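To whoever is on call:

I kicked off a structure prediction for a single chain this morning and the downstream step that reads the tokens threw a length-mismatch warning. I double-checked the sequence; it's 256 residues and nothing unusual in it as far as I can see. Pasting both halves so you can look.
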Amino acid sequence: MSDTILATQDLTKEFKGFTAVDKVNLQVQRGHIHALIGPNGAGKTTCFNLLTKFLVPTRGTITFNGVDITHEKSAQIARKGVIRSFQISAVFPHLTLLENVRIALQRQLGTQYHFWKSDKSLSQLNDRALQLLGEVGLRDLADEVTVNLPYGRKRALEIATTLAMEPELMLLDEPTQGMGHEDVDRVTELIKEVSKGRTILMVEHNMKVISTIADRISVLQRGAILAEGNYEEVSQDPRVMEAYMGTTDGQLQGAH
């Protein structure tokens, strides 16, 4: 049990008779990068929304560190350390990178949203904010206004604001979507770097990213788990090849 940080049992979500997530049994091991993949419409996003409590399951249970969180609200599980990046951690475009990370750090002080406080009262957070920007390769841009950043760097900043909330489990929702090759490579390396000492569950379409960093992969099809294993096992599974494109694994490996 101690090695499993997040588990679901028969997790199911129905919408007016349509089953979007069908009896999913997921086990995420502590310290791993676990990828959730599948063709469009497979139920990945719905599954993520169930895990982060933006949707209520029709049936089944979710446990985090052995505690049943099935009926808790999203804010409650965020306080427990389950943080979904690119959603809770949206950045403010007209603030600097340093200011964005500092606002995220205010959650730790219990002073979030106290925008009337003077900058001086928040200066204690500067060192930690700069350290987090350093972790994602953005320290030199601390005083840059966020709106001026290229897309890939904005994603890196979003990861920094997520880290500021001290997640025990980070959920990354398609972190490389819409990126060019250079940004994909940079963000892939960044995820690998920030995963040290943390657990990551990610939805990702880019198979090159998955093959590079995922310790374990769960493949969803029509809301149910079709296959699980490491990249080599999953990419050679005939059911997975067929689910993606009905042809060869060579195409699967290049698929987005």
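Update from on-call: the warning came from a stale cache, not from the record. Cleared it. Sanity check on the structure: The CA atoms of residues 241 and 249 lie 6 Å apart.
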